[in-house]
């Protein structure tokens, strides 16, 4: 899939923390994508999250290709364990985006877990092959 996204000038920026569970799941799912991009629909908000190695961007279904919010400059290296939250910068491109951010904080992790649950799983159990020793 290819989507061209556009941005207005940033309206505001703030430092936030993403729960470790959400960040770790997003990075794990992204690692399985050969394209280097992950597209996660947030159906409850009619949003699409586009995740790559540098940022998570959120686009509204009505405005299609215009970025409303971007989560950038993740700093996982500053945490001392994998269960600590990850610092990042939230960049808002519209005044309304600040209000939407509150909802994204709860809806994005749910959408990410739903996406992970639908990820292709092996259809048969693994088999261990035994070779003769010696």
What order do the helices and strands come in, and which of them pair?
Layout: E1 12-18, H1 20-31, E2 38-42, E3 47-51, E4 55-60, E5 67-75, E6 86-92, H2 97-118
Antiparallel strand pairs: 1-6, 2-3, 3-4, 4-5, 5-6
Helix pairs in contact: 1-2
Description of the molecule:
The chain has 134 residues and is an alpha+beta fold. It has one domain (12-118). It contains two helices and six strands. The protein has helices spanning 20-31, 97-118; strands at residues 12-18, 38-42, 47-51, 55-60, 67-75, 86-92. The chain has a six-stranded antiparallel beta sheet with strand order 1-6-5-4-3-2. The mean pLDDT is 89.
Q: What would you call the shape?
A: globular
Order of helices and strands: EHEEEEEH
The overall pLDDT, averaged over residues, is 89
- How much helix is in the residues? 25-40%
Distance between the termini: 51 Å
Radius of gyration: 18 Å
**How large a portion of the residues is in β-strands, by DSSP E?**
25-35%
Structural class: alpha+beta
* Number of DSSP-assigned strands: 6
Q: Largest sheet, if any?
A: 6 strands, antiparallel
Summarize the structure.
The chain is α+β, with helices and mostly antiparallel strands and 134 residues long. It has helices spanning 20-31, 97-118, and strands at 12-18, 38-42, 47-51, 55-60, 67-75, 86-92.
Describe this protein with a few key phrases.
134 residues, alpha+beta, 2 helices, 6 strands, globular
